[in-house]
Amino acid sequence: MAAMKYSVIAPVSASVTADPEWIAEYAEHVEACGFESLSVVEHALVVSRYSSVYPYASSGRMELADDCVIPDPLDLLSFLAARTTRLGLATGVLVLPNHHPVVLAKRLATIDALSRGRLRICVGVGWMKEEVEACGAEFASRGRRADEQLDVVRALWADRSPEGVDHHGEFFSFEGGMSYPKPANGRSVPLHIGGHSLAAARRAGRRGDGLQPLGVAGDRLERLVSVMHEEAEGAGRDPSTLELTLGHQVSRITLGKAASLAARGASRLTLQPEPTGNLSRAKDELSACADRLGLA
What is the mean pLDDT of the chain? Predict the structure, then answer.
């Protein structure tokens, strides 16, 4: 069995992730502790007094304040790529309807090429209707739009023909498209699917490189993983190549708990730190976690 990978979520709720000195030193410490990657979140826009229901809390409200400082995740990862050498750079999650896939393909491939293949993207369709619509997409059709977006991104990365790639879909259309640079491995940036629905599991099986279910455990988790594998087989893909990323807390994860989640199929744990703006305290929490997990 492959060793468990451990990712750390940047402490966005502390409103420090746009402080260049703070977040750079934090990322450098995440790398020094031996964690696999640092994951950053996205909200292009938070609409005050939103009426959408946040599906991961009983209150229906997200844990972030409406005026929380949330930098653009791809710009933030570009900045952190220059301050680290081995650390994986990830999103969790990128709100896919907020992005045009042609522009997104270019941005992702550029970060991946410049970081020498350290980028991993987890995308979702978004839950805040007001945000998605403010970015120009129809909320009701965002699932179909996401499928087409993933197809466009992958087609642009894969194509090396002198004629370029043509695409004529429901939402996007172009002919002779050529997008360079390509991802560092010459094929694709890993694209994982975030979400808690059967649609997310189906999308992961058909188009993703893995699934990152949010707020799901037990029988429901097993069902999502089963659906992902069934969809992969139906699409002629090898389900054993798809990763499962689950969540836990930095302060509470142990080797025993990690082993239990590995038995459920997890290959990576994304760890949530305490929401502190005190850098010394934040680094001490990471060091203690790395010691418990035996990381280098």
Answer: 97
In this structure, of 54-58, 73-77, 95-99, 284-288, the range with the lowest mean pLDDT score is 54-58
State the CATH class of domain 19-27+38-241: alpha beta
Show me where the domains of the chain are located. Answer: 19-27+38-241
Q: What are the tens digits of pLDDT across the range 177-186? A: 999 999 999 9
Closest CA to 210 of 158, 183, 245: 245
pLDDT in tens, 6-31: 999 999 999 999 999 999 999 999 99
Position 2 scores a pLDDT of 77
Residues in Cβ contact with 32 at an 8 Å cutoff, skipping those fewer than 6 apart: none
pLDDT value, residue 44: 97
- Looking at the whole model, is its pTM more than 0.90? yes
